[in-house]
Hints:
The complex is a heterotrimer.
Chain A: H1 2-21, H2 23-28, E1 38-43, H3 53-68, E2 72-77, H4 85-95, E3 100-103, H5 109-118, E4 123-127, E5 136-141, H6 143-157, E6 162-167, H7 172-188, E7 193-198, H8 205-217, E8 222-225, H9 231-239, E9 242-245, E10 258-264, H10 267-279, E11 286-289, E12 296-298, H11 307-321, E13 332-333, E14 339-341, H12 349-353
Parallel strand pairs in A: 1-2, 1-3, 3-4, 4-5, 5-11, 6-7, 6-8, 8-9, 9-10
Antiparallel strand pairs in A: 10-12, 13-14
Helix pairs in contact in A: 3-10, 4-5, 6-7, 6-11, 8-9
Chain B: H1 6-33, H2 41-57, H3 62-86, H4 91-110, E1 124-125, H5 135-139, E2 141-142, H6 144-162, H7 164-174, H8 176-181, H9 186-212, H10 224-234, H11 239-261, H12 268-288
Antiparallel strand pairs in B: 1-2
Helix pairs in contact in B: 1-6, 1-9, 1-10, 1-11, 2-3, 2-4, 2-9, 2-10, 3-4, 3-9, 6-7, 6-11, 10-11, 11-12
Chain C: E1 2-6, H1 12-36, H2 41-50, H3 56-81, H4 89-106, H5 115-141, H6 145-165, H7 200-216, H8 219-229, H9 231-236, H10 241-268, H11 279-289, H12 297-318, H13 322-339, H14 341-344, E2 345-349
Antiparallel strand pairs in C: 1-2
Helix pairs in contact in C: 1-2, 1-13, 2-12, 3-7, 3-8, 3-10, 3-11, 3-12, 4-5, 4-6, 4-10, 4-11, 5-6, 5-10, 11-12, 12-13
Amino acid sequence: MTGFRLKALGLSALLVLTACSDSEQAATEATDAPDGQVKAGFIYVGPVSDGGWTYEHDQGRLAVEAEFGDQVTTTFVESVSEGPDAERVLSQMANDGADIIFTTSFGFMNPTIKVAEQFPDVKFEHATGFKRADNVATYSSRFYEGRHILGLIAGEMTESNVVGYIASFPIPEVVRGINAAYLAAKSVNPEIEFKIIWVSSWFDPGKEADAAKALIDQGADILMQHTDSPAAMQIAEQRGIYAFGQASDMAAFGPTAQLTSIIDDWSPYYIERVGAVIDGTWESGDVWGGFNTGMVALAPYGDAVPEAVRSMADEARAAISEGRLHPFTGPINKQDGSPWLAAGETADDGTLLGMDFYVEGIQGTLPSAN
Amino acid sequence: MTDYGLLTSILHAILVASTPLVFAGLGALIQERAGVLNLGIEGLMIVGALAGFAAAIAGQPLGISVMAAALAGALLASVFAFLVLKCLSNPVATGLALTLFGLGLAALAGAQYVGRAAPQIAVWEIPLLSDIPVIGPALFSHDPLVYLSILVAVCLWWFLSFTRGGLVLRAVGENHDSAHALGFSVQGVRFLAIITGGALAGIGGAYLTLVQTPLFVEGMTAGRGWIALALVVFASWRPFRVIAGAYLFGSVTILQLHSQALGLAIPAQWLSMLPYIVTILALVLISARGQGHRAPGSLGQLFRASR
Amino acid sequence: MMQFQTRAETHWFHEWLAVILALVLTAATAAGFLALLGFEPQSALHRILIRPLASTYGVSELIAKATPLITIGVALSLSFRAGVWNIGAEGQLVFGGLTGGAMALALYGVDGFWVLPVVLLAGAVGGLLWGAIPAFLKIRFQANEILVSLMLTYVAILLMSVMVHGPLRDPDGFNFPESRLLHDAAILPKLFDQGRGHIGFVFALIFAGIGTWVVKRWHLGYAMKVSGLSPKAAHFAGYSRDTTIWLSLLIGGALSGFAGVVEVTGNIGQLVPTISPSYGFTAIIVAFLARLHPLAVIPAGLLVALSYLAGEAAQLSLGIPAAMTQVFQGLLLFFLLGTTVLVNYRILWVRAV
Lengths: 370, 307, 353
């Protein structure tokens, strides 16, 4: 038994000693990037190979490398849990000499702010959050603009008048997407009904597939999703109905089923912001980009989408892009019948950012409702 | 598949959702009956899922894909067998390490398969039976693997209950010292059980990537290996009860999704808890009525010939 | 043919030999692999293993990462010794984090030295209650604790999700699923001026000390052990199996819940949907790496924590994918577990007849 104790104490001491003996060396150790080269770091909530959210952010990182060549180096850490680990990874990245760090999930917000205070010379960019600082900018995409187009197409193309919606967690972004799609569908098809299943997961292909089946069995002939795997698309293809992809083009999983797909295209923003660091013109700010910035894109229409629907969708897209149309334009009531927007009034960004209610006409209870 | 009533569709979906749990649960069961507690089921499943998917993408027929999955599961399980049986390492920790290792390995090797879809598996309609209204199409119009999962359970039950081999396996699991004294090879029996269990867990994983969602992404087993382990306990280490447990769990999962689509006014997270809570309640009921059975006597204990 | 002979007594020399052999094997495998990928092994290993620790900051973060692993590892090593299979420490951690965090939010704005102790206590009590469920069901209905504690883990995680999406949501947080940041009075003091190493680590060390004392000196520790090895013998000796079950799961729940609230008040500073990257499961490995010895849980926890830091460093400075880290963690564990054979057994090579 004494052996145990010796081992325990010895090994602990060893770990701490190696650590301390080297501490001075680390402080003076040069950063990896040669002079003049900008180092951009990315932290991801999922694996690069998730084929959805993280995959698209990594495509943005690769676009930065392609754009600036030798002027930049990029690093990333994937599958960083949103709990206690994010702060450490961020500090390590900053310690390692990163000039700009993109934190690509909402849960990284407070760690980003904390670490940014300790590293005033490093620029931080946080996706989908609302806290900023002199060296912390925020950015996000107006995916609800894309959802509006999806809603229009669904409203036109459904025969059963039932749209199935697979949702992840009741955060404002997801609720906003449901509302935008529903309002658009309703505008072209007053009979439309949305059936919504919350799977309480961003990524569980098996469960998403089960949810897709349940929706189809209850009469849905078009599926929308706000979860990351292409499982629902595959089920739609098997069952001979239509579906919309999420985050990236999912046509490979539903060659005849996919009507279109919202694509998160982060490249324009990442190139612009890293470019600003290279030029020395970077400033904190808040960008919520939609169709007009190229940050929200749509996959090519599927063969099943008729010409008339295409031109209507294209027209709506152009109108949104040019600012002639806002997906949330009154009169709109909340689910309980209370008025939200008067006729002609458009929603302000603050309300949209924190949206936690269904609009009138949607059935079911929002899980987060108090 | 379109004109069934809702009930038929729900039953059909329950069977599909439960089948991976049946395979993996049976794989855990055969090991535990031999006295081996293997917490690496999740790792074995994901490796099987990848191997089966890779074979299907390469254009292999279903039979070959399933065998590839079984082989991959058995190979990874043999690492566990080596460590636990030869190096006498602690089985609980080794199983958990196996899960880590398997998940990592599958993610690394599987990166090239992300974004690709496997061909759909043809359905075997069982003549006559599949024509029965409502339950016919729900129970007898499936991919071959659903039937295979039942067949495996029957075979396992028969093997454990009526064969000499099964008797030896149970003896080894109940009291390895006595079994050894009687001249049986404890390590040999356990090795075979681990390999077989690994193969079954591999097939369970492959069901996900071949049938349920014909695609591969890392971590897609999403904790099903753990559920399978819990189901073996639920089943009091009996094959048919594994099926019952898996179908119960699958039923509650599917029904909570349907109740949401029907617009039931219960927040989704509460409904998502149901499968776990119902399983606990069912176990309590079974155990309270004394119908639960205790674990095999030597479960999780290391064996070393005393000479 | 290889044969094993039990060593009469384990010797400290063999313990060290086994650990060092495992580390060398892992390092050699890693070095070989890095060389294959075109890195210079020595400097690459230095970057991955030494540099993350080469500062007060690094040590501080290592300690922060190891704290929950050690705290829970101590509890589980006692529980597993007693043959009580608490696989659901993760759920007890999450529930403790939830109750402790809720207490901190309820006391928001209140200053006072007593706030933090009350918050920590609330976390421990929450975990204890979550651990009491499998204990009660096992004693009253003979329901197996493996299943109940594991299933309750998923329930606890969903409960946390319900609460941060609803009642405990930050009123000024645009309805995002996070609580407000905790008030300073509910934040654990730090040990260093850099990094997040906090006094939770000191608690973890104290728990390890108490655990060791329980195992070695206290009658109860002996009773639990006997009860685990042979319930019948324990019964004849007058030890109550029920008491053992209660104690194992309540201690496990309380310490796991404590680890949860320590994560919330020490590392995260608010309630979020995910407060633990599976610490409760990883701690099972830690407990067995330490071969269920509470004191050995300290280095085992530090080692496992280091393996996570090393993985991040490998991604950051070498661009090695996260999955590779998992594979190497698996390998390290295989080596560590496999080489214990040298400790317990003498290996004889016998010519087959």
